[in-house]
Amino acid sequence: MNAQKIEEKPKTEIAGDEPIIICRSVNKWFGEFHVLRDVSVEVAPKEVVVVIGPSGSGKSTFIRCINRLEEHQEGQIIVDGMELSHDVRNIAAVRREIGMVFQQFNLFPHLTVLQNITLAPTKVRRRSRDDADTKAMQLLERVGIPEQANKYPGQLSGGQQQRVAIARALAMEPKIMLFDEPTSALDPEMIKEVLDVMKELAHSGMTMIVVTHEMGFAREVADRVLFFDQGRIVEQGTPDYFFESAQHPRTKLFLSQIL
Amino acid sequence: MTTIQERRPGVINEAYYEEPATKPPPLLAVGPLAWVRENLFGSLMDTCLTIAGTLLVIGVIWSFLAWAISWANWFSVTLNLRLFMIGRVEQFMDLRALVLALFICFILGVNLAALARVSRRVWGALTITLALLYLLPALINATVPLPPTYLAAGQIEIVSGSVTEVPVPTLGFIAHSGETITIQVAHGIADSDAALEKLNSFTDRATNAIRNAAENRLETEARIAELNTLLAGDTLTVRQREAASSELASLEVPPPVNEALAVNQTPVDVRILDANFEPLASATLTTDTEPLTIAVPRDGWYILEKSVEGNDSSVDILAINGVYPILERNFLRSDPTDTNAGPQRVYQYCRATDIFMVEGGRPRIDGEDIPAIGIIDHQYKNARPFSDYLILMLAPLLNQIQLPVALFVALTAIGYSGARWVDRQFSPASKPRSTSRRAATWLWIVLPVVAFILIAGIMPNGPLQFSDSQLWGGLLLTMLLTAVGIVGAFPIGIALALGRRSSLPVVSTFSTLYIEVVRGVPLVTVLFMSMLLVPFVIPSLGGPDTAPYRAMVAVTLFSAAYLAENVRGGLQSLPPGQEEAAKALGLAGWQITLYITLPQALRAVIPALVGQFISLYKDTSLVAIVGLIDLTGVTKNVAAQTEFQSLLRETYVFISVIYFIFSYVMSVVSRRIEASGSGAARRV
Ligand SMILES: Nc1ncnc2c1ncn2[C@@H]1O[C@H](COP(=O)(O)OP(=O)(O)OP(=O)(O)O)[C@@H](O)[C@H]1O
Ligand SMILES: [Mg+2]
C-alpha cells in the first residue's frame, strides 16, 4: 500500500444525513467510579471521528459501549436505528453492523489467517465457505497480505496481524468500524502500514470512530475530533479548528503535551 | 589496550570491519569429556555423589538381575499371560481381543501419518526388534538344551523330614507329534549325596524328597563338624558350651541317602503308552543300557509307566527328556454347533517349557485323573543357571509375544503407509494431510462402537456372541476403564467447567458443588459408593455382571471433576480479548465457546489432561479392591493358584512393566503434541 496514492479524503458533510450513531447523555459507572458522564454525540454515515484524550479518560469505554462490549447505565445509544438495551436480538444485530479493531489485535491464535476472517461470515452471516474464502482473499489483497492466508497469527508481524484484524472486521461487511488505539502496540515501522489501510478505508466511505494518539492521522483523515477528559467530551471540532484554535485549557494542556 | 585516539568521538575502530577470525574452542571446554568433568566431577562433593550414585545404581540393577535370572519363577507370568491380558473371559474372546488390539494399532498408524512422520531409523529399529523377537528364542531353542526331568521309580517310601513320598508308578504327560522322548537312568547323580543335592531341574515329588533328604543329611554333617570345632576351641562361654554339646548329642547323621535308598542299583522297567493305554515302547534300563527313545506319533497325552521289578528297597532316578510340567486350566465354552446346551467346562493343559497346549483327553485310571508333574514340583533349591533361565523363562515369553507384537507392528505400518498413500492420492497440495486427518478422526469415532461390539458382543451366539462381563479382566479391563473414563469424562468435565463459569447461579452452584465434593473424596470411596449405591438409583445396574459398568460410572464421574478443573484453568488462562473479539464479530455465546474459547482452552491444557489420563490409567488399579480383576487384580489371582502360591514379586514386576510402557507412551505423545505447537498459540 502506498501512501502517495491515497488522495486527500474530501471532508464529509455532516449535516443533511440521518446520523448512524446517536448517543444521548450516556452515563456509565464502574462500581462507584463514574467513567462516562453525559456523553452526547451523533455520528453521520461516512464520517470519520477521531477520539483523543489522556489515559483513563474513558475513550475505550466509550467506543466499547457502542457495540455493547460494555453496558451503559443511563442515556441512550442508537446505532443504525436500533437502540442498545438488554434485548439480546438488538445487540446481535448491532454487532453485525459494527466491526472493531483492538489494540492487542485479538486474533484467534488457533485458526489460520483465512479461518480467522471467514469464521464470522460463515457462522453469523451464514455465507457459504467458498463465498467467504473468496471474500477473505479479496480483503487480504486489500490490506496487502494475500500471501499470508494459510499462516497462523503467531507467525505474523504485529503490523500484519493488525491488518488481518482489520480484514476480519471488514469481512462482516459492517457499516461502522471502531478502532481502539490500533497502532499503539506496534513498532514505529509497522504503524504506517496499518495507518495506510485505515486511510484507504476512510477514503472508501466507511463510518469510523478511531481512538488514537496518531495526530498526523487525525489531522489528515478525521472529519471531527472529540477530546475526552474525565469521562466528558470537553471539546470537539474539525481537525483544523482543534489543532489550531482549541479553546478549553484542558485541551490546550493536552495538546501541548503531545505535540 | 585502549588508546586515547580510539576513544575519541567519531573515530571508527577499523578492526570492526575486518572479518573476525574464528578459532575452535579449547578441547576441554566442549564435548562429552568436558560435560562429564563439569557435571559429574565439578567439585569434591559432586565426585562423591557421582561415585556413590553410580555404585548404588549398579548395585540395585545387579541384584535385581541376579534375582530375575537365578531365582524368580517367571512361569507365574509366562503361563498366565492370557490372564494378564484379558482375564478369565471365554475362549472366543481371544480372537476378538486380538482384532480390537489390531484395529487400535491400525488407528495409531493412521494417526501417525496424519500428525507426524516416522523416520527410517525408527522403522529400522522396529524391524530389528521384531527380528530379534523371532531370532532370539529360535537361537535359544537351537543351542540351549532343555534340562532333563528327573523322575523316581520304585516302591520304596522316601522320607525327608516330615514328608513321606512314594514314587508314582504311572504318570501322564503331553507331547508334540514327532517329538522324541528319551528315557535313561540318570548318570552321575547317584554317586554321592553331594551329587544328589545338586540335582536341579524338573522333578517329581519323590525325587524332590530324595534331593531334600540328601541335603538335610549334608547339612547335619556340616553342623556337627561346626559344633566340634567350636567345642574344640576356647571361644565359647560355659552356657554356650553346654548348649552346643547338647545340640551335638541330639544330632545324628543318617546313612548316606544314595546308599540307604540303593539309588540306581537295580534295573528299572519303563513303558510308554498312548492315551488309550496301548503300549508304544518299553525297555528295562540300567545305568549301562542305551536310553529308551521313541518319537511320539501325534499331539496329545501319553503315559509313562515305571517300576523296579520285585524289589521294594531300592529306587531309580530316571533322566527324561520330553516330559515336562503341565499346568491345568479350565474355562466354560458353549458348543457353537449345539446352541441348546449350556456352556461346557473345557480343560486345557499347557506345558510349562514351551506353552504347548492340549485340550482335554487326560487319561484316567481307577476313576481318577492320571497324575502329572506340576510346576509346584519343580523347585529350584539353588540358583538357576543362566542357560536354564534362557530356555525356561525367556524363550517361552518371547515365543508367546512374538506373533502378536509382529501383528501389532504390521497393522501400525499398514495404517501408516495406507494413510500416506491416501494422502498422496486425494489430499490437495495446500493441505497435504487433510485426507488422513479426516480418516483419523472418523476412526476414533468408530473405535468405541467397534470396541463395544467386540468386547461385549451383540448377538446371542455366533462369533459376536455376548460375553460375560463378570469375566472381563487383566489389561483389557484396565484399558476399558481408562478409555471409558477418558471418553465419558470429556463431555461431562467440559460441561462442568462451563457450568462453573456460568452466570446462572443454579448451574454454577451445582457444578462447583459437584466438583468440590468429588475432588474431596478418594477414588476408592467413589468406587465403593458406586458399587453399593448405583443399584439403588438404577436398579438394572444391580447384578454382579454389571460390576464393570458400575466401576466405569465411578471412574467417569470421578475423572470428570478433575477434567473440569483442568479445562476451567485453560479457560481462565485465555486473554479476555479473545472473547471480546468474538463478541464484536457478532458470534453468539455458544459459538464463542465452541469455536473460540474451548478449542484454545483444551489445547492449552493438553499436558495437564494427559497427566490426568495417565494417573487415571494407574488409578484404575483400585478396582481390584472392589472385586474386579484388572491388571493389578490378576496378581492376586495368580498368587492364589496352587502352582504359584504367594508368588507376588514376579507378577508385580511384570505388571509394573506393562503400566510403565503405556504411561510412557502417553507422556511421549503429550510431549510431542506440546512440541508440535498445537498449544494455545499455534505455530506450525
Ligand atoms: N472493567 C473495568 N472495571 C473497573 N474500572 C475500569 C474498567 N475498565 C476501565 N476502567 C477504568 O475506567 C477508566 C477509563 O478507562 P478506559 O479504558 O476507557 O480509558 P482510556 O481513555 O481508554 O485510557 P487509555 O488511553 O489508557 O486506553 C480508567 O480509569 C480505568 O481504570
Ligand atoms: Mg483505551
Describe the structure.
The complex is a heterodimer of chains A (259) and B (684). Chain A has helices spanning 59-66, 88-97, 113-123, 129-143, 158-170, 188-203, 215-221, 239-245, 249-258, and strands at residues 21-30, 33-43, 48-52, 74-79, 82-83, 98-101, 176-180, 207-211, 224-229, 232-237. In chain A, helix 4 (129-143) packs across helix 5. In chain A, the strands form 2 sheets. Chain A has a 6-stranded mixed β-sheet, with helices on both faces. In chain A, strands 2-1-4-5 form a 4-stranded antiparallel β-sheet, covered by helices on one side. Chain A is built from 9 helices and 10 strands. The longest helix of chain A is centred in the last third of the chain and has 16 residues, at 188-203. Chain A has 259 residues and is an alpha/beta fold. The model of chain B is unreliable at 1-6 and 678-684 (pLDDT under 50). In chain B, strands 1-10-5-8 form a 4-stranded antiparallel β-sheet. Chain B has 4 domains: 3-65, no CATH class; 90-145 and 396-462, no CATH class; 149-323 and 326-378, Jelly Rolls, CATH 2.60.120; 468-684, MetI-like fold (Orthogonal Bundle). Chain B has 22 helices and 15 strands. By secondary structure, chain B is an alpha+beta fold. Classes of the chains: A alpha/beta (259), B alpha+beta (684). The interface between A and B is medium-sized, with 27 and 24 residues. The structure holds adenosine-5'-triphosphate and magnesium ion. Magnesium ion binds at residues 59-60, 180-181 of chain A.
